[in-house]
Input
Amino acid sequence: MSRFQSFFHVLILSVAVAMPTACGSKSPSANPSPNPSAGAQLSVPQAQGDAPFLKKQAAAEQTPSGRDPLMEQGAKFMAVVNQYKQRIEKNPKDQDALMFMGNANYDINRFEQAKEYYKRYLEIDPTHPGVRTDLATSYYQTKDVDAAVRELKTVLARTPEHEAALYNLGLILRQEKNDNPGAVKAWEMLLKAHPNHPKAVEVRKQIAEMKKKS
Output
């Protein structure tokens, strides 16, 4: 699972990634960014999308055509986006295309659009934990904390050991809800199920601090 690299953001933000007009059903890994992508500090929830990963080329290099390689990459990316949009127009229930478009919009901070694609995906398959976790992070990014918590709890009801959902739920409960007992419970479950989580050391510190205050 991966997210598009940030150097695409400026290129893509100049191009509208519109919702398809053909909607036959209803819509974020990876990433609060839940694009919850994990950073060095406990500050943002992690996303769970399945978007393809595009590698960065050196900005100083020039392609044989003389065009900036970032522009070349951006043009290729937008061509792929258009292909997925066309797929959705032909088949509004194309799950791979809905996920791709959700992730693509999420990665350029178009969270409202990302939510719609993720919702449409979940109308087809409501059990996908990664897509629902990305929906939760999209809600978080649009300041709808209650909806984010609701979606994360839905993920955990079906997949109790889901790594990103546990991490994100603990983070949101602690930072946004002042619910230290709830955050401790979620993070202790996270450490039990995933003792080697990348943020395990920091999570343990935060748990200890919250328990001191209780």
About this structure: The first helix runs from residue 7 to 13. Residues 1-43, 50-63 have pLDDT under 50 and may be disordered.
